[in-house]
Each structure stands twice: as C-alpha cells, then as structure tokens.
What does this fold into?
Amino acid sequence: MTSPDGVAIEVRSLWKIFGPRAERVLGGPDAELDPDELRAKTGCVAAVRDVSFTVRPGEVFVVMGLSGSGKSTLVRCLTRLVEPTAGEITISGEDVRAASPAQLRDLRRNRVSMVFQHFGLLPHRKVVDNVAYGLEVQGVPRRQRHERARAILSLVGLDGFAEARPDQLSGGMQQRVGLARALAADPEVLLFDEPFSALDPLIRRDMQAEVVRLHREVGKTMLFITHDLSEALKLGERIAIMRAGAIVQLGTPEELVGAPADDYVADFVRDVPRSEVLSLRWICRSPADDEHLDGPALPAGTIIRDAVPAVMESARPIRVVEGEELLGVVDRLDILTAMSGRAGTGS
Amino acid sequence: MTSQAPPAPPVQAIPPTAPRDAVRPPRWVVPAAGIVAVVAAYLAFRGTATLPHDDDAAPFRFVNDVRAWVDANRNQSPVFLFFVNYIRLFVGGLYDAFLLALQAPGWAGLIGIAAALGWLAGGWRIGLLSGLGFISFGVLGLWEASVATLALVLTAVLLSLVIGLPLGIWAGHSPRLRRLLAPVLDVMQIMPTFAYLAPMVLFFQIGPASGAVATLIYSVPPAIRIAALAMEQVSPTAVEASVSLGATRRQTLFKVELPMARATLGLAVNQTIMMALSMVVIAALIAAPGLGSDIIRGLTRANVGLMLPAGIAIVIMAIVLDRMTMSAAARPPYPVTGGKARIGPRLRWAVAAVLVAAGLALGRVLPAEFPEEWVLRFAAPVNEAVNWAKFSWYDVTDAIRNFITEVLLNPLQAVLTGAPWWLVTAVAVAVAWRTGGLRTAAVAAGCLLATALIGLWQHTMETLTTVLVAVVLTLLIGLLLGVAAARSPRFAAVQRPLLDAAQTMPAFVYLLPALALFGATRFTAIFASVIYAVPPVIRLVEDGIRNVSPAAVEAALSCGSTERQLLWKVRLPLARPAIRLAANQGIVMTLAMVVVGGLVGAGGLGYDVVSGFSQRTDFGMGFAAGVATVLLGILLDRITQGADRRPSPRTSDRTTTRKKRIA
Ligand SMILES: Nc1ncnc2c1ncn2[C@@H]1O[C@H](COP(=O)(O)OP(=O)(O)OP(=O)(O)O)[C@@H](O)[C@H]1O
Ligand SMILES: [Mg+2]
It folds into this structure.
C-alpha cells in the first residue's frame, strides 16, 4: 500500500533535544552549538538535529553512524516512542505528529512495526504468544492470532518452537522471534534498530540474508539502523550517515564510497573494498591521445570487480559507455589501482 | 497529501483451521474439581473432627511439669550450674555495666555525649538530632526508662554483633556454612517475636538478662545475613588482585574485603539495632526493664495516654540510632580530595570534646534528676482526645470494624474452626503441593499435624483467620499503591518519605493508633498489621514494576499497547517474582503483628502467649502457643516462598538468581 505521491516515510526538519527546557534551546541561537558546548551550557543533548529524508515505498533505507550519533532516537521518533521536539513526520500520508493517542496506537498496531537491538521479547510468554502479542492487543481472538503467529514463525524458519520460552532460544532465534512479531501484523513499514548487533558474525550473516529474502518476498518498506558498514552496504538501497544528530550525507553506497562528503564519511568508508562497490563510472578517465578506442564496451554501471574478466581479456582499454555516450576508458592499470584501494576520490 | 482508509486487518485472510490444542482439557478443570470436592466434604463433615480448645490439655501440663522440674533443679543440674546460669550472670552483668556507664555522666552529660557522637557520625545535623532526641526522653518524663532501654539495646546489639558479624563474614566465604545457616536463619526470621519469650523464661527466668537474650536472638539473623552479603558483594577481581600479590587470607580480609564491605557492614549494624529496638519493648512481657513496660501496660489496659510518651520515646530512639549509624556508615573513611573543603579531623574531635565537656559541666550545676518542671505530661489530654476521636468517629470506625468482622472474619473463622481438621490439612497440603512441590507439601502437613498434637488447633485457626483477612487487605492496598507509585513519579515522590518513616518504626507502635480508633478488638490487630505490613509491600511492588526491562516495555508500546494493556500484559506479569516476594513479606509481617495483637484483644495464639506470662498455670499453654505461632509462620512462609520456586518456566529462576545477585 503506497501513498499517492509515492512516499512511504517523509521526515522534515526533525529535532529531538533531551533535557530541561528543550523548546527554548531549539528556538534560540544555542541550537547551532556543537554537542559538547550545548551540553555544557544548557544541560541538553541534541540527539537529532534538523534531519530530513524521504523513503520510497518498498525501499530499504539504511541509517548509519557511530554510537551515540542519534540513530535510535531518530527511529523512535518516527512512531513517537520518543516524542520529537520539532519537525514533521509523515508515514504513508498520515501526519504522525498530529496523531491522537488512538491514531498513534492504530499506526503502531497496523502499519509500522519495529525490531529492537536487544529483542525486547516478553520472557513470561511463549514464543507464539510473543509473536501474537501485537494481534492480541488489537483484540484478535486467540485461535486466529495463534494461527497467524505460527504461519509467520514458519516464514522466519522457527517451525516447532512456538511453545518454547524466549530464553530457551539462541540469540539468533530470539531475533527471529522479534522479526516475526514485527511481521505478524502485516505492517507496511518495518523499522529495525540495530537488530543484529548483539549477534555473532555468522548468525548475523544468516539474519541479513533472511532480511534480504523477506524483503524480496514481502516487499515491505524498511528503515534499517546499523553501525556496521558492510551490513549497510549489503542491505541498503540508500544510506544516510549521521553524526552528532545530523545527517552528513545521504546517497547510494556507490555515492558514499565514491564521493564522501567529508572526512567523517571518508573515514567511515575507508576500509570498504572499493572494487566491490564502485562501478566503472568512478574510475574511467578521458582517453589519452594515443589510445585506441576500439576495445570492448561496458556499461558505466558495471561494478569494477565484474569488469575484471573483460579487461583481462582485452589488450585494449575498455570503453565505458552510458547508453550511446562514451564516458571514458579504463585499462588494466586503472582496474588494478582501483582494486588495490589506493585510487583518488574519483571524478 | 490525502488521507487513507485504514488498512484491512490482515488476520481476516487466514483460513480457519482446526484448533491444535482442543484435545487437552482446559487448565481450570482440575482446580475447579478440587474446590467442588472440598466444598462437598465441608458440607458433609462440618462440625465433625474439630479440635476444640482445652485450657488443660496434656501437652500444656507437660510443659508446666518441665518448668516445675527446672525451677526445682535450677541450682543442682550441671547444665544450669555450669552453663545456663553463667550466661544469665554474664548477660545480666553486661547489662548492669552498660546501665552504670550510661548513668555515670548524669543526664546532662549523657545528652552531651549523644550530641558529640551524632556530630562525629554525621555533622551538625545528626548531632543536633541526637542531642534533641535525648533531651526529649527527659521531657517525656521517661529519662530513667529510656536509659534502661538503651542499656538493654546496647547489650543485645553488642552480643549480636560479636556473634553475628564473624559468623556472617565466615558464611560469606564458605558456601557450605551458608547453606547450613540459611534454613536456621529463615526460621528465626519468620518467628513471631512472642515465640522467643517463653523458652527464655524457662532457662533464664524473668528480668533483664532473659530480655537481652531474647532480643539478641531476634536481632542476630540480620547481622549474619547482611555481613555474609557484604562479603559476597566485594568485587572478586579486587580479592583476586590481592591474592595474586601474595597477600595472606588474613591480609586480604582486613585490607581488602572489610574496607570494601564497610558500607554494607554498617547496614548490618543498623539493622541489628533496629530489630533490637522493636524487640526490647516486647521483652517487657518477661520483665525486661525500660520503656516497654509502659507500652505493654498501656496496651493491655487500652490506655493510649499511658503508652503514648513511651511510644514516642522509642520512635525517637529508633530515629536517632538509625540516622546516626547510617550516616556513620556512609561517611567515607578517607578525606575527600577536591570538592568542598571538609572540616579537618582535629577540629572534629575538638568540637566533640567541647560538646561532652559542656554536658558534663552542666550536669554539675543542674539537679541530678531530670528537672520535674521540664517534663511535659500529656496522658490526660491524650486520653481525652482519644475518647473524643472514638466517640465522634464512632460511626465510621464501627462501620468499618463491623463490616470486616461480619463479612470476612466471622464467616472465615466459622469455616476454619468448623471444618474437620483433616479437611483443612488436606487443603493446605494441596495448596502447598501446587505452589512448592512435594517438600513444601510435607512441611505443611508436618506443621499442621504438630499444631493439632500440641493442642492448639482451634486457636491456630482463629489466628490464621485474622492473618488471612489482614493479608488480603494488606496485599490489596499494597498492590494498588505500589502500582500507582510505579505509574506516577509524582505520587511516588510524595509516598516515599512516608514509607521511609514507616519502616524505621518499631512494630508495635502501629498498635497505638489502632487501639485509639478501634479499642481492644480483633479488628485492632488487623488494622495495626495492615499499616505495619503495607509499606514494604508497596515498596517491593513498586520496585518490581519499575524494574521491568524497559526493552520489553518499549517493544510492547511499539506494538500499539494501551497503558492498561501494558500494565496487565507486560508490567505485572514481569514483576511477578517481586510481587510474590511482597506477598511473602506481607504474610510474615502480618503474622508477627497479629500475634502481638493478642495484647489488644485479638485472641488466638497471641492471647495464649500473653496469659502464659501473667498466670503461672497457663505457662504451658503460652509456651505451646509460641511454638504454634512458629509452626504457622513456617507453614505460611513455605507456601508463599514455594510459589517462587515453581519448576515451570526457566525465566523465573533466572530472575531470582539475578535478584539475589543484586540484593
Ligand atoms: N532518554 C534520554 N535522555 C537523555 N539523553 C538521551 C536519551 N536517550 C538518548 N540520549 C542521548 O542522545 C544521544 C543519541 O543517543 P542514541 O541512543 O540515539 O544513539 P545511537 O546512535 O542509537 O547509539 P548506539 O549505536 O550506541 O545505539 C546520546 O548522546 C544519548 O546520550
Ligand atoms: Mg542505538
């Protein structure tokens, strides 16, 4: 279900300031201070500062940033688990900040679900009752909600664990339960707050694959918080990088790696194997005068690594084309330089 | 942006299929069948196999014979000659020494010393509190009695600490000793105060020595418990570091563990003192000197004016000793660097010395006795006020009392005393089995059979009735206020200081307003035990609900729970261990108070105990009644604690271990 204008989540100039007299800080000149000065001067923490972005229906939108950069606060503001200080939030056409408590509950029950870093399971309930909790608070009769919960449990690969207690499951399984609970009400939007940080690397990879699969199968809009760059690159169609409450850059993985907006972002993406993210567009150069332009052509969007065989086979530079237009050429040396990770900041 | 129709609930799409768990009978079938069977049995056998009370039952006579034998052989039997009598002499001598030491500086001197100690412990505030507190003993006209009480408390506390702290520290290091002590301490802590008294009389006769020993026994468990806890809380890394540097066990104990456990050990001292204070009053029943005798006399004659000054004095003493020990324990043992400049040690001692000297000097000029003109006498106006209150609120108090008596007490008592003993036992065993398994069931059966055997079935059932009614009220009020406090920080902020104050007061103080309002009736004991037991229940419930994992609460909120759903589906279920603990505490405290209520017309076992001290022929019955209260305490405690160890979900024992580690 999409909003008529093709926007699932729209956030405009969102602020969240923790502390006494937050509104006053927002109105005054203090809002411009950097975090440490602000805290020293007013005792307030600006956890989210003037954040704006939109998420398209069906998109996986990733927010990343270091610890304390305000990611969790941002995602909690979306359903007002944390009350924003200022700004606009629209989720599939509905103005969240203007919603009454009943409308807000309706939003949380039916349209937006959340998966938490520490799972947030209810230890006194069986797995099936955890998954069915959202339906239970809506007043769905027991039989129906259990039916639904079992169906979802098998979707996330937990057949046969319905009667277990949460703490009899491993961390990865517990997070599957968290995922199932979020899916049970069939929401349009899923919010993930660092869902896999507490898991070990192997299980994390499984779970990421699970999310990719679910995204393919159920096609939800997802907003995914992480501080793990490789996770962001694996899942995100677009990534927003936050620092000290503000978004410093928003773009596709390629854009972030190819053209970091500042040193902070550059630092973030430094260890990314560029050849696996960047496409030829980022490394092609204008042909030198003496170069032959009769080598094979590859589209500009080809990932560098995928271009390796073609380049190795051809003695001539490869032509990088966008439709009919020639963007430039790459030769073996360019490819090797890019793969060794020492290329400049791109064109 | 256009608004949208709300999306259709997704669940409607699910095709109905056969329910999977239709085969098993619903969970309520077995209990319901049980209840029907019990009701049927009650109706069929009502009035048969009851065990009516007999003042002259064989067990009572046996105890009387034992006492006669002990009295006759007190100076012949070697056990007495070489052991018990020496303890009596030693404890009595210690008490006399303390009394002499407290009387020596004269009243003004003692006030000066108290103020100086307060100053050393916690600065001018505590010094002032302590000085004024001691002055008030004189103003209340109770100087001599207060000093006697203080001497008794100091005797008992000193002995408790000498025994309790080393034992506790040892137990903190030795899991085996801990396991050995745990059940003993458990039983000691659920024993109603009255139960200690009769054996004391048997061995140590009446007087200060047996009063001090009774108080000592009552106040030693917290000393042991908290000292052991203090040892367990010392960071294992610090101990390991000390050992790895080659320290001996002794060095590690004195240089690392004890200093690190200082604050908690201070709490042990504090708790021991508080326990001792509430016991010395009751020890007046066995002729222990001090404030207690006024209170006991006031209680038995329903004379509020007589006991109020003594009650106030004991509360003041409790507050002074509590604040003094707490702030002494909280003081960092080393000078704090940075921050506000503190008063140097030399100046501290100088001020203390000045205070003491001033007191002693004043003592020279002032009369040796606390001047009569300064004494405030208010027994008569208080009694008038009480009468006025009784008279003008009669309608309300009478209505409340009658309602509880007619609707709850009488029917329940009729059922419990009218049912055959085997039926009551069977029900108790079934409940115990359900909540705590086979062992608890065996304990329950044992307790009830023993009660029947010692000839106190009927009175136990009467006391049980009062306890049950009081517990229901306590839990109801405690849950309501606890939940309210957990939900509204403002309400909690108003309530907390009241709870703090309530928890420093010695138990029987609560009998005072109860007696003033309701006279000497069964309901008085209920009222007193409810106000006595409600504060800790509120606190445990509030903490339990507040400490529910915020992650679970947030997750439930994000699913769209209402506040009410959050409370019923998440907060209360997750706080269940805390609520069970609250119920257990509530029951144990209620029982203790209901038994003391025997003094003010609650009847039952408490009354038997009291009359055991006033009439020599009833000694056996009083002794047996003390035993019966212990049996009842064990029964109720096991049933409610057992509920905590129910084997089903793993969660519950995880939370309890976590709780223990934190505690
Ligand atoms: N309830 C609160 N009260 C006051 N300050 C808060 C509160 N919650 C968060 N903050 C502050 O807001 C800032 C952002 O916190 P937030 O939890 O959103 O960070 P995060 O990016 O999610 O970090 P992490 O990766 O560690 O989860 C931090 O400086 C934090 O101290
Ligand atoms: Mg976070």
